[in-house]
Write a structure and sequence with these properties.
Jelly Rolls, three-stranded antiparallel sheet, five-stranded antiparallel sheet, 3 helices, alpha+beta
């Protein structure tokens, strides 16, 4: 069993849902040599999340942002407001969507469905870049 791990720094992105599958897989080119394995991505932040969803229709990204804003709007009377009105809703959204994804590797590629991609879910209005640790294991 072989292990690889990379720390990825993504540049700042606007609030919303951003496909990052290629950035993550490109960071671990050794994955292409694995017959079978597991790809794990973990985001090192509490106001952004990572998830898997449809990667074809850009309307899905808009609708996901709309739904998350309905679930945790910026104008709820949160107590934790030191970092601005978008911070606590970002924490709620991050907890709902999660901080990691795991995907099987088959024949050197992510074994995702036809329309699946990995998203960075940016929940802040003016966030800095985001850090993700990618761990790959396999043979």
């Amino acid at each position: 069993m072989t292990w690889y791990q990379r720390r990825i720094e993504l540049p700042p992105k606007a609030r919303g849902f951003h496909l990052i599958t290629r950035e993550l897989t490109d960071a671990v080119p050794e994955m292409r040599s694995l017959k079978v394995g597991l790809f794990h991505a973990f985001i090192l932040h509490t106001s952004a999340s990572i998830t898997i969803n449809e990667n074809a229709d850009p309307d899905v990204r808009i609708d996901m942002e709309t739904a998350m804003n309905r679930i945790a709007p910026d104008d709820l009377p949160f107590i934790h407001t030191l970092e601005g009105p978008d911070d606590m809703p970002a924490h709620v959204k991050s907890s709902l969507l999660g901080s990691s994804v795991s995907v099987p590797i088959a024949d050197g590629q992510l074994a995702v469905g036809t329309w699946q991609g990995i998203y960075l879910c940016e929940h802040r209005n003016r966030a800095a870049g985001r850090r993700i640790i990618v761990t790959v294991q396999g043979e």
